[in-house]
From TrEMBL:
This is SOUL heme-binding protein. Transmembrane segments: none annotated. It comes from the Eukaryota. It holds the Pfam family SOUL. Belongs to the HEBP family. InterPro entries: Reg_factor_effector_dom_sf, SOUL_heme-bd.
Length: 221
């Protein structure tokens, strides 16, 4: 019931608020570990979130986990995707770090984690969706190894974002307008934008729209 009413009871990424501006925050996020999958949305009937199932299977959210080690990990939020529709890549490509893990053996249940990042800068027509794993996984080698070779585990470095929060349905037009407003505010206040925006959604789709928590995030220096 709490999820329907928008209550967020799962782990969210720790961050430091560096500045509070007019309708936004500047946040610094520490390094973390991510699971990611690169795919062509056309293969998922044009759905940019189509890769969700592959990653959800890796963590065991939809049944038997497709990974190693028998350990259940608490679910976290938000889910992060690209803000497609503005004519440019709309998510941040995060630099590759080592190690990278792609294979494994016996399954380990890993609960849903966040954020999930969809990155459409990989190649023309390609999208990369990313789940950030729970904070207990400090290094890539700590995470359970995926049994699906399409899933890659890697370390994400520290990053800084300008973030604006809003409620309701995160429709394409709404997200684009929020991102444009955030970008204008950041540039007005002297921040250097380092890339396109990403969208963070903290609630499942059955949450009542007025009670949903969403954020647009733009990487800054």
């Amino acid at each position: 019931m709490g999820m329907v009413l928008g209550k967020i009871t799962v782990e969210t990424p720790k961050h430091e608020v560096l500045h509070t501006g007019a309708g936004y925050e500047i946040r610094r996020y520490p390094p973390c570990v991510a699971a990611e999958f690169t795919y062509d949305p056309k293969e998922w009937k044009g759905d940019p979130d189509g890769g969700f199932t592959v990653l959800a299977n890796y963590i065991g959210a939809l049944g038997k986990p497709q990974n190693t080690k028998p350990e259940k990990i608490a679910m976290t939020a938000p889910v992060i995707t690209s803000g497609a529709g503005d004519g440019e890549a709309s998510s941040e490509k995060i630099a590759m770090t080592a190690p990278v893990i792609t294979t494994g053996g016996e399954p380990e249940p890993v609960a849903m984690t966040a954020p999930v990042i969809t990155d459409d800068q990989q190649a023309p027509g390609k999208v990369t969706m990313q789940f950030l794993l729970p904070s207990k996984y400090a290094k890539a080698e700590d995470a359970p190894r995926p049994t699906d070779e399409r899933v890659v585990i890697r370390e994400v470095p520290e990053r800084k974002y300008g973030v604006a929060r809003f409620s309701g349905v995160a429709a394409e037009k709404t997200v684009r307008e929020k991102a444009e407003g955030l970008r204008a505010a950041l540039e007005k206040d002297g921040y250097t934008v380092k890339g396109p925006f990403v969208l963070a959604r903290y609630n499942p789709p059955f949450t009542l729209p007025p009670l949903r928590t969403n954020e647009v995030m733009i990487p800054v220096e």
